[in-house]
Design goal:
The protein is an all-beta fold. It has no helices and 35 strands. The two termini are 20 Å apart.
Length: 404
């Protein structure tokens, strides 16, 4: 897979003996307010958005004023928020009720999928999983790791994760570890050690790639292991966070440098190539056969360009987004999460645009989220994770999904 992975290793890490400070201009947090349902049927109060129309005939806001259906977009579960958007439950204020895998998750920062399950790391010192259909709010702890799991990825019958490391004074202490998806409490296999704040983690083929935002390095290692010594793809970067791999090329964002860049694998011969400069906090990135897509965290922008000629084809998909952090694409559209502008503000969102663009504004699939950081897609749903309230020990995070 070539989905993006990025980390808050440059952000706040609190718990199990480690503490770092956010920069206030980097991130906000938001309240996981919208109406949520667990697979047991519980629901909380919902505060939705105005989806753009009520009554006999409503314009499909967010795509094209020519898209019209006879529906109340605020309440119709078959046309919730926009025409043809079907919920698997109620539609309230133009938003589908979403499925909750775990409420009040503490500090989760990435989310991964296989055919049947959702996986995520937790500041509780565990990697969790839950069936996509739900687990009544009680996920399985696949692994227990006291050194703060940060990012996850799934490869066949194994799940991999990075850990921040809990020794703030004597570092580097971060690791990459793996175990069967069915669980390995107390018997995980370590693949890499001594990494300074390992962050974004993704798998392409049988190779894993991960970043050290603090050291400015991108590493690679076979999923089967590399003798605890991963290979350096490129070093000397400012702050590599977003990461994607496609067709023998690694694409990455260098946030503090404001760059979207690429390198030829395996060792970045000739050095990294700047594809887009002067990007305001470039963060999440992903690619498809034709284009590169990324978000600018500080600029509030969602952008894309052609892989064959990025510099001359940069296109802005959406503007005025509230701290966008991660992005995912497939043939049906472009999806991203917005973390929200300030701690506790409750204005994080999950949003989407068709590939043709959304001049009337993105469609919102979930609103009033508390620090949305990462997302993943399957054919039917979008899944996301909220880190919680950064100013209140990350309380209020969670893992959710909603029909696409």
């Amino acid at each position: 897979m070539n989905e993006t992975r990025w980390l808050l290793s440059a952000f706040l890490i609190v718990g199990l003996g480690c503490s770092r400070s956010f920069r206030s201009d980097d991130v906000g947090a938001a309240d996981a307010g919208g109406r949520s349902r667990s697979d047991a049927g519980d629901a909380s109060a919902h505060v939705g958005k105005d989806a753009g129309g009520t009554g006999e005939k409503a314009i499909d806001a967010g795509r094209n004023s020519a898209d019209v259906c006879t529906a109340d977009l605020l309440t119709d579960p078959d046309n919730c928020g926009f025409c043809g958007h079907a919920c698997d439950g109620d539609c309230t204020d133009g938003l589908c009720n979403f499925l909750t895998y775990k409420a009040n998750e503490t500090g989760g920062q990435s989310i991964s999928l296989d055919a049947t399950h959702v996986y995520w790391p937790s500041f509780e010192g565990a990697v969790f999983r839950c069936p996509k259909t739900g687990c009544k709010g009680t996920p399985q702890a696949v692994a227990r790791d006291p050194s703060v799991p940060i990012s996850t990825a799934v490869h066949g019958s194994d799940v991999l994760w990075t850990t921040f490391g809990y020794d703030i004074v004597v570092r580097p202490a971060g690791t990459v570890a793996t175990c069967p998806v069915t669980g390995c409490i107390g018997s995980a296999t370590t693949l890499a050690t001594g990494i300074m704040d390992p962050g974004s983690l993704l798998i392409e083929g049988d190779t894993m790639y991960f970043t050290s935002g603090a050291d400015g390095v991108i590493y690679q290692c076979p999923v089967a292991g590399c003798g605890l010594s991963p290979r350096v793809v490129v070093k000397g970067l400012d702050e590599p966070l977003g990461l994607a791999v496609r067709d023998g090329t690694v694409y990455f964002t260098d946030r503090s440098a404001g760059l979207l860049r690429e390198c030829a694998l395996p060792d970045c011969a000739g050095g990294p190539v700047d594809l887009a400069v002067d990007q305001k906090g470039a963060l999440g990135v992903t690619v498809d056969d034709v284009s590169i897509y990324w978000v600018n965290q500080r600029g509030g922008e969602v952008r894309r360009c052609l892989r064959s000629d990025c510099a001359d084809t940069i296109e802005t998909i959406a503007t005025s987004q509230s701290v966008p952090t991660a992005i995912a694409v497939d043939a049906d559209g472009i999806y991203w999460v917005n973390q929200g502008a300030s701690s506790g503000s409750g204005n994080g969102t999950v949003a989407t645009c068709p590939h043709s663009g959304c001049p009337e504004g993105p469609r919102v699939l979930a609103a009033h989220q508390l620090g949305s950081l990462d997302l993943a897609l399957d054919a039917d749903r979008v899944y996301w994770i909220n880190v919680g309230d950064q100013d209140n020990d990350f309380i209020g995070g969670g893992v959710f999904s909603v029909p696409r």
